[in-house]
Automatic annotation (TrEMBL):
It holds the Pfam family NamZ_C. Keywords: Signal. Coiled coil: none annotated. Gene3D superfamilies: 3.90.1150.140, Uncharacterised protein PF07075, DUF1343 (3.40.50.12170). InterPro entries: NamZ, NamZ_C, NamZ_N. PANTHER family: HYPOTHETICAL 460 KDA PROTEIN IN FEUA-SIGW INTERGENIC REGION [PRECURSOR], PEPTIDOGLYCAN BETA-N-ACETYLMURAMIDASE NAMZ. This is DUF1343 domain-containing protein. Residues 1-26 form the signal peptide. GO terms for molecular function: peptidoglycan beta-N-acetylmuramidase activity. Residues 53-252 form the Peptidoglycan beta-N-acetylmuramidase NamZ N-terminal domain. The keyword Nucleotide-binding does not apply.
Length: 398
C-alpha cells in the first residue's frame, strides 16, 4: 500500500495548522506589544525630571492600567505646576461649546486652566516658570474636532515663550486614509486652522510635526517639539482607545460615523445629541419621508440639545456594519433631498456648515444636485497635494 499521498496530505494539514497558529501568535504578539506614548515612561520621565511641567490633558490621558497620567507623574515626583484642559474640560463631561471654569484638581490640588472659550491659547503669565508643556489627549483624527487646534495654540505659545512641547502619542481612529475637502484660508476657525482635509490620516504627534515643519504657526515660528512615539502601532489597524474623547462620542460606532455625520451640525438636522445614540442617528422634523423616529431631550453632555423635544424623522446607523475608511456623503445628500420646510433653509443661517467643510463649495454642490461621486472627484487634486505634505511627517507603517 502506498502511503505517500496520505503522508503528503497529512504534512499539508500540519503546515496549514502551524501557519494559522503562527499568524494568530503574531497578531496577539502585536496587540500585546502595542503601547501608547503614555505607557512608555522610560522615554519621557528622564526628560521631565527636575523640570517644571504644565500638562495638557483630559479624561483620555490614561495609561493601560487606567491610571491617570497626572497621578502617575505626581507619584514619580514630577513637578506639575498647571493642568491645561481642552474643550469639554479636564474630566471631559462638558457640552460641546460649553464654557468651562478654571479650578483645582480635587485629587492633586493642581490648578486647572481651561483652554477653551476666550482663553484658547495659554497666556505668557500662565506659562511663567514652566520648562516643558506635556500634551496627552486622545484625538479623533478629524479636522473639526478641536483638540488639534488646542495643540496648535499650545505649540505657538510655547514657541513664543521658549518652552519645549512633548507629545505623548496615541492612536488615530481614522488613520491610514485621507478624505474630504481641503480647508481654504478664508474659512479658518477653531474647527479648522490649517489647509488640511476633513480626514488627514496623522496621529497627534505626527500632526504637530507637520504644523512645525510647514511653519504653520503665526509668523512661521517653530516650537521645540518632541514626540514620544507609540510602540507596535500600525496606521491601518484599529485600536481600543483609553476613554470616550467627548460626551457625544461614547463608543467606536459614533467615532466611526463622526466624520460623515458631523456636517449635519451646520444644518437643521440633529445628529442625536440628547439621545442614547449620539452621532449614530440623524433626523429632523422636516425629513418625514425617512423611516426612523427619535426625540432629543436634555441629558448629560447635551443639556439643551438641538431640536430639543421635537419629533425627528431620519435614519438609525447604530448597526451600520462598515468600518468606514472614507467619508460617506449619501446620508447628507439623502437628508437634503427629503427636507421639506418652507420657513427655514436646510443650512443654518450662520453658515457654520461652511466652517465645518472648510469651504463654501460643498454647500453649493449639494444645492446644485451634484452626486457624491461628482463631489468627491472635485477634491482629488487638493487631496493629492496634501498627500505630498503629509508623507513627510508619517512616523508609523501602514
Amino acid at each position: 500500500m502506498n502511503l505517500r499521498p496520505k503522508n503528503k496530505a497529512l504534512l499539508l494539514i500540519v503546515l496549514i495548522y502551524f501557519g494559522f497558529c503562527q499568524m494568530s501568535f503574531a497578531q496577539n504578539l502585536d496587540k500585546n506589544c502595542f503601547k501608547t506614548g503614555a505607557d512608555r515612561p522610560e522615554l519621557y520621565l528622564p526628560l521631565l525630571k527636575n523640570k517644571t511641567v504644565a500638562i495638557v490633558t483630559n479624561q483620555t490621558g490614561l495609561m493601560s492600567d487606567k491610571t491617570f497620567l497626572v497621578d502617575f507623574l505626581v507619584k514619580n515626583d514630577i513637578d506639575i505646576k498647571t493642568i491645561f484642559a481642552p474643550e469639554h474640560g479636564f474630566r471631559g463631561d462638558a457640552d460641546a461649546g460649553e464654557h468651562v471654569e478654571n479650578g483645582l484638581d480635587k485629587k492633586t490640588g493642581i490648578p486647572i486652566i481651561s483652554l477653551y472659550g476666550n482663553n484658547k491659547k495659554p497666556k505668557p503669565e500662565q506659562l511663567k516658570g514652566i520648562d516643558i508643556v506635556l500634551f496627552d489627549i486622545q484625538d479623533v483624527g478629524v479636522r473639526f474636532y478641536t483638540y488639534i487646534s488646542t495643540l496648535t495654540y499650545v505649540m505657538e505659545a510655547a514657541a513664543e515663550n521658549s518652552l519645549e512641547v512633548i507629545v505623548l502619542d496615541r492612536p488615530n481612529p481614522h488613520d491610514g486614509y485621507i478624505d474630504g475637502p481641503v480647508l481654504k484660508n478664508q474659512w479658518k476657525s477653531f474647527v479648522g486652522m490649517h489647509q488640511i482635509p476633513v480626514v488627514y490620516g496623522l496621529t497627534m504627534g505626527e500632526y504637530g510635526k507637520m504644523v512645525n515643519g510647514e511653519k504653520w504657526l503665526t509668523n512661521g515660528i517653530q516650537a521645540k517639539y518632541t514626540v514620544i512615539p507609540m510602540k507596535g502601532y500600525h496606521k491601518k489597524q484599529r485600536y481600543e482607545i483609553s476613554d470616550k474623547p467627548s460626551p457625544n462620542l461614547p463608543n467606536d460606532k459614533s467615532i466611526n460615523l463622526y466624520p460623515s455625520l458631523c456636517f449635519f451640525e451646520g444644518t437643521q438636522v440633529s445628529v442625536g445629541r440628547g439621545t442614547e445614540l449620539p452621532f449614530q442617528i440623524y433626523g429632523s422634523p422636516w425629513t418625514k419621508n425617512l423611516p426612523f423616529q427619535f426625540t432629543p431631550k436634555p441629558s448629560a453632555g447635551a443639556k439643551d440639545p438641538f431640536l430639543n423635544g421635537k419629533l425627528c424623522y431620519g435614519e438609525n446607523l447604530s448597526e451600520y456594519p462598515e468600518d468606514l475608511r472614507v467619508l460617506n456623503l449619501e446620508w447628507l445628500l439623502k437628508a437634503y433631498k427629503n427636507y421639506r420646510n418652507s420657513k427655514q433653509d436646510f443650512f443654518l443661517k450662520n453658515l457654520f456648515f461652511d466652517k465645518l467643510a472648510g469651504t463654501d463649495e460643498l454647500r453649493k454642490q449639494i444645492i446644485a444636485g451634484k452626486t457624491a461621486d461628482q463631489i468627491k472627484a472635485s477634491w482629488k487634486s487638493d487631496l493629492e497635494n496634501f498627500q505630498e505634505i503629509r508623507a513627510k511627517y508619517v512616523m508609523y507603517e501602514d
